[in-house]
Design brief:
Layout lengths: L1 H14 L3 H10 L2 H19 L3 H12 L1 H10 L3 H16 L26 E6 L5 H13 L3 E8 L2 H10 L4 E4 L1 E3 L3 E6 L18 E8 L11 E4 L5 H6 L2 H7 L2 E5 L4 H14 L4 E6 L7 E6 L1
Parallel strand pairs: 1-2, 1-7, 2-3, 4-6, 7-8
Antiparallel strand pairs: 5-6, 8-10, 9-10
Length: 298
């Protein structure tokens, strides 16, 4: 609850007339990232010292799924990815920082050598927050000397959409959740980049009803050539709702798989079934259990 209140204060600061400048300066200096990493390190260190219920569940889950883990490791296209994935599975069971792979924060989504870029890219950013990833995408396209045809930002939170519109007025913003069908869901709100589907009511977090969509049903999304997803555990639903586009276009994918043990197993296998020709890679972008990303390209 303490961290939630602090995060709310940071968001208020960001949206005030003078606070936005301060927030942006601190963000550029890496203060937000540093605070998040220190918090996660402290929490993870405690887990390592004392075996938790979460760790026991992970150990049981990955033991039961050991054949699928082996299958995914074989699917990965380079030794670095195989090592990274193996280490992250072990880390989720032990929270022993000694087993963590080398992280590559600055290369998240766009700094890898797996992707090649073409003119007229259509980038779909699921979980667009305030446009921080959109900004990186634009920078990458300029560096590559390529143009983009359209950027589609999918975001559920009202405050985030307001900031998106201000920061990137050229984007098509879809306010709603990426899901497997059209549905009204309960979402936590006012938490910046941590807004998510609420499967159970919480007294601590404000929620509101938000429309969710299968992105296959949205005309602009059907032209996607690059899809990024970091939607707080809704990735499996969203991928099922994007199946036709993925199978037809075979877009570049950058999909977060760290939100649950199930995501670490089910998402790679789901995408392999959708597009057997995909080549898969895994990179870790923080020194915690967060920001494990699966990359896919043909």
């Amino acid at each position: 609850m303490f961290f939630y209140k602090m995060y709310k204060f940071a968001l208020w600061l960001k949206d005030s007339s003078w606070g936005g400048v301060i927030y942006s300066a601190l963000d550029m200096l890496g203060v937000r990232i540093a605070i998040g990493r220190i918090r996660n390190y402290i929490l993870n260190h405690k887990k390592q010292q004392n075996v938790t219920k979460e760790m026991r569940q992970s150990r049981k889950y990955f033991l039961e799924k050991k054949e699928q883990v082996k299958q995914i490791i074989k699917l990965l296209s380079d030794e670095r990815s195989k090592d990274c994935y193996s280490r992250m599975v072990k880390f989720r069971c032990t929270y022993d920082h000694k087993v963590l792979p080398k992280n590559s924060y600055r290369s998240q989504y766009f700094g890898n050598t797996y992707f090649s870029y073409q003119d007229d890219e259509v980038f779909v950013d699921c979980g667009a927050f305030d446009g921080d990833t959109v900004k990186k995408f634009k920078k990458k396209m300029r560096k590559e000397g390529k143009t983009y045809k359209q950027i589609i930002a999918v975001e559920v939170d009202r405050r985030n959409c307001k900031n998106l519109s201000r920061n990137h007025p050229d984007c098509l913003i879809i306010r709603g959740g990426a899901w497997d069908k059209k549905e009204v869901l309960q979402f936590s709100t006012g938490q910046g980049e941590n807004c998510q589907v609420q499967y159970e009511q919480s007294r601590d977090l404000p929620t509101e009803k938000i429309r969710a969509y299968a992105l296959d049903k949205i005309a602009a999304c059907r032209h996607a050539t690059f899809i990024k997803m970091d939607i707080e555990g809704a990735e499996q639903y969203a991928l099922r709702g994007f199946r036709h586009t993925i199978q037809t276009n075979k877009p570049k994918l950058a999909i977060s798989i760290y939100h649950s043990d199930s995501d670490m197993i089910e998402i790679p296998l789901m995408l392999k079934e959708m597009v057997p020709s995909y080549k898969f890679y895994v990179m870790q972008h923080t020194n915690t259990a967060c920001d494990t990303v699966l990359y896919a390209t043909v």
